[in-house]
Amino acid sequence: MDDTNIGKRIKDCRLKKQLKQNELANKLNITLAKMCEYEKGVTVPSIPTISKIANELDVTIDFLVFGKLDKIAEHEITDKELLTVFKNADKLTQDDKKVVSRIIKSLTLTEKIQSVGI
User: Fold this and answer.
1) Residue-wise burial string across 59-78, b where 16 or more C-beta atoms lie within 10 A, e elsewhere
2) Total tally of structural domains belonging to the chain
3) 54 and 15 in one domain?
4) Domain boundaries, position 21
5) Which sign, positive or negative, has the C-alpha torsion 84, 105, 63, 72?
6) Tens of pLDDT along 43-91?
7) Which of 14, 27, 96, 100 is the most core-located residue (most Cβ within 10 A)?
8) pTM of the entire structure?
9) How does DSSP classify residue 116?
10) How many DSSP H helices and E strands does the chain contain?
């Protein structure tokens, strides 16, 4: 486990969510100085804190600790075109991601309903 990479992933995810360091620190009930230490890799957050950070940043603990996100998706999504679409969707705003998620959930629910003949 590379402490610097954990900090880099925390920072990258925070920036993707357009959060300032102090905003994330406030949500986690930690000091700004502690948040800076995490992002610089000076200290590593405890397991409960990593869990809170992952929750606030909408990522998995595995991703923050090990960087395992794309590899999981690539192994589970076999359709390369769909995988590319999902990778591009990651660049959308949080609101747009929620819309995309609702559309996909609606389509899959519709497919399930049709498969049982309702």
Assistant:
1) beeebbbeeebeeeeeeeee
2) 2
3) yes
4) 3-67
5) negative
6) 999 999 999 999 999 888 888 888 865 554 555 667 778 778 877 887 8
7) 14
8) 0.58
9) T
10) 8, 0
